[in-house]
Amino acid sequence: MSTANPRRLLTTPTVAMLPRVADSLSFLYLEAVRVIQDETGVCAQTEHADGTTSRVYLPVAAISCLLLGPGTSATQPAMATCARHNTTVLWTGSGGVRLYSGSQPPNLTTYWLEHQARAWCDDTTRLQVATRMYAHRFDTEVPEGTSLQRLRGLEGQRMKTLYRTLADRHGLRRFRRNYDPTNWDDQNPVNQALSAANTALYGTVHAAILALGCSPALGFIHSGKQRSFVYDIADLYKATHTIPLAFALHNHPTPEREARRRLRQNFHLYKLMPTIVRDIQNLLDPTHATNRPDDNADPDEVDLVHLWDPHLGSVDAGINHAGHEEV
User: What are the coiled-coil residue ranges (predicted)?
Assistant: First the structure.
């Protein structure tokens, strides 16, 4: 019979008790508010014309991505709290012009980052990951030996067909995808809704990538940008979520706002957040279900840091190795 103190067992945290990115809310959009930190937590504060102030508290520990639109400001303590909870913050403007900021907690394992780096730095494995991404988008197996150029051509044809089909379905003639931040108000509702929805999708995917400890810059299809991997993963879901949603809002008076609202509903309805996490893991390591570390392991039993050795692999860190090898 165990002699452990039941009260101590109830209060001792385990990895299984900690919040996971797959269980968190997708994103929250704020506009014309001041984000502050008070004695209770982080809140969005609004000043009214009569001089009164109202506050809405934000569950930052459960939010993957916080979108701050035009007219927003934030205090340093509030942003520090978001960073501690690994909440990705995006500052967005008209047309989806954005300056993003991401933070990662220091206790994240490098398991998935190492898988990503190994797959990215070798042309053969990078092509394999890119092929798996295209196979995911096509929802079919890609024949062995298919070149990346051929896959790009097939993907481009499918996207043109999708745009044409949705335009015909909604009675939109000569639709053309257009993204021009300098002439945002002159764009049609479909383009406005699509830009707003894609911005929210990029932010949520970015948050999932950071939560896994991966690098947003090491893309397999896209390259040259600090968010190349974000674009890779976000492209997996545009054809099924953001593009059909944008066309459905072609007559809506506020397409941007409605696109964000409905996309957030879709994230909850289709459980997209855990799907994104699972897809990233499967793309980087198709065998991760049997090889990855145990998510329910006791934190005291998990080796968070080790030393690399080209011959021995991982060796213990935090000890003095003097005398272990001949000098």
Answer: none
